[in-house]
Amino acid sequence: MTPETDGADFTDPTSSALAHFGNEVRLARESMGMSRADFGKEATCGYSLVAKVEQGQRVPPREFAEACDRVFPNAGGRFMRLWPLALKYAFPPWFRPYVELEEKATAIRMFHPVLLPGLAQTEEYARAILRAGRCTDLDNLLTARLARQRILSRDKPTRLWLVLEEAVLKNVVGGPDVMREQLARLRGIAENPVHRVQIIRNTGQYRASAASPFGLLSFATGTDVVHVDGFPTGYVLAEQADVGAAQEAYDLLTALAAPPDESAELIDSVAKDWYS
Rounded to the nearest 5°, which phi and psi values hold at 15? Predict the structure, then answer.
């Protein structure tokens, strides 16, 4: 699953937070005399997912933890308190500090020249990207990626500002059906008054814009930080000079991009012309 869990004994509930979560589910289920299949019905999932979670082999979706607290007597919210710890095991160790920052951010400004960022991806778009990358832990990575998106819809949502190259809309990921659904999701983000989406039109001419995907995270207190996607790992920059350079680059990108209303029209146009 991850370097720190490779070779771990997932039957040992002390081996990881993920194994502990699964063991707690098993103990609570068995104390009720409930079968895995019966709990799967209560949690609207299959027997296989229940078995894999209990065995510490799958990161539970948020809805699974919520079902545990609902179904098991005297749970008292225990499973939702454990869930964030279990979820961390789906992220590569180098990415976890960024996810913690993302959770705390009040605003995130992101640029991507090729793909939709994870915060804006539909399940099938994300699945296609992860499958193309030949990841060996697709289900857990997919669960974790989708779980990150809840910051956009919580009571005080994180404000998301996306600046994307037009190529992002036309790079086919997973086929026309997947792209239609993905562009509809992007259009929904664009229509949400909390968020902003701007598209940089392809004019066929070179522009001195950013080449690498990056994001700026802002917080209620403290200074901004920058996250840069890279190979083999991304990295976070907090030095004032780096943050200032990223802010200047993002300002230039927003100036190059079409205004939000025109960007929404472009999304509609591409969806109609390319994927209808």
Answer: -75, -25
CATH topology of domain 17-90: 434 Repressor (Amino-terminal Domain) (1.10.260)
User: CB of 165 within 8 A of CB of 212?
Assistant: no
Tell me 220's DSSP state.
S
Q: pLDDT tens, 60-75?
A: 999 999 999 999 999 9
- pTM of the predicted model, to two decimals? 0.86
Q: Which two tokens stand for residue 62?
A: 């948020």
Rounded CA-CA distance 166/140 in Å is: 30
Cβ neighbours around 133 below 10 Å, total: 10
CATH 3.30.870 fits 93-275, yes or no: yes
The two structure tokens encoding residue 163? 């600046």
Contact 162, 110 (CB under 8 A): yes
